[in-house]
Amino acid sequence: MTIVIEQPLNEVGREEKRLVSDSHELVLDGGFVVPEINSFGHTFRDYDADSERKKTVEEFYRNNHIHQSYEFVKKMREEYGKLNRVEMSIWECCELLNEFVDESDPDIDEPQIEHLLQTAEAIRKDYPDEDWLHLTGLIHDLGKVLLHPKFGQLPQWAVVGDTFPVGCAFDKSNVHHKYFEENPDFCNPKYNSKFGVYSEGCGLDNVLMSWGHDDYMYLVAKENKTTLPSAGLFIIRYHSFYPLHKHGAYTHLMNEDDKENLKWLHVFNKYDLYSKSKVRVDVEKVKPYYLSLIEKYFPAKLKW
Ligand SMILES: O[C@H]1[C@H](O)[C@@H](O)[C@H](O)[C@@H](O)[C@H]1O
Ligand SMILES: [Fe+2]
Ligand SMILES: [Fe+2]
Predict the structure, then answer these.
(1) For 269-282, how does the pLDDT look when each residue is reduced to its tens digit (9 = 90+)?
(2) 19: CA distance to ligand 3 center in Å?
(3) What's the rounded Cα separation, in Å, for the pair 214 and 129?
(4) Arithmetic mean of pLDDT, 217-241
(5) N or C: which terminal CB in the chain sees fewer CB atoms within 10 Å?
(6) Of 55, 26, 51, nearest to 40 (Cα)?
C-alpha cells in the first residue's frame, strides 16, 4: 500500500508530495526514491558502521584533518587559481573521472562518473524544468580530476571528503574531529578561536575552505565565465560543507546571500547523497542531453 502525504511548500516554494510505501522508501512526486540504506547495508554517512569501507574512510580523514591547514589552503588556491594546466571540455573531463574511486565516501565505491550521472538524473526526475540544476548535478564533483596526473595528481586528502573553514576553530560536527588535534592550526591562537581571522556575518566568499574538488570546480566555472546562476555556483562550492548544511555549524560566518543560496543547497544535497547506488546510468543514452546543457552554460573548452 502507498500513502500520499501532502507537504506544505518547501523552502524554494515548490509543492512536494511524498509517498511512503511499504518498503519504507520515500518517493518524491517526480519519481526519485530516497532509500533508507546504502549499497553496503548501512544508513547513509555512517562513519562508525562496521563496513568494508570503514578503515579506508577513517584513514582518509586522519590525513585530511592533519594536513589541511590555513597555509596549505592559501598556497593551493593561489597555485590552482592560475588555471594554467590544461584546456579541456566539460565532457572530456567527466570521462577522466572513470578511473577514480573516492576514498572518503562510505556510501559508494563506483567510479565517479557514475555518481555524476546518478545525481543529475535523479534531480531531473523531480525538477524537470530546472536545467541549470541538472547541469550543476553533473559537474558538482568534476573537481575530483585533481586526482589525475594531468591536473597534478593530488593525494585524496587534498581532493575529496567533507570540507570546513580553515583560519578558525574546527567545529565538533566535522566527522572524525579528533584528528584535527594534529593539525598545526589546532593550537595556534590566531586560528583556533570561534571567529579566528573572520568576523560575524563576513560572508562565505571571504572564508577560506579546506582545499578540494568543491572550491577548485567553483574557480574553474567562475573564471571560465559560466552563465550558471549564483545558486549553482554556491552548490558546487559548498556541497561538501556538511558541518554547515547538515549540522548548522559556522552559520555565524554567513551573510544574507549565503542564506538564500543555502535553500537550494539543501534541495541539491538530497539527490547528491541518496542517489548513490550500484544502478548504472546508460551514459550514451543521456549524453546528448547533457552536451546540450554544457553548450548552453559553458564555453566549448575550459581552462583548468
Ligand atoms: O565523501 C564524500 C565525497 O567526497 C563527496 O564528493 C563530498 O561532496 C562529500 O562531502 C564527502 O562526504
Ligand atoms: Fe563532492
Ligand atoms: Fe557528489
Answers:
(1) 999 998 988 888 99
(2) 25
(3) 25
(4) 98
(5) N
(6) 51
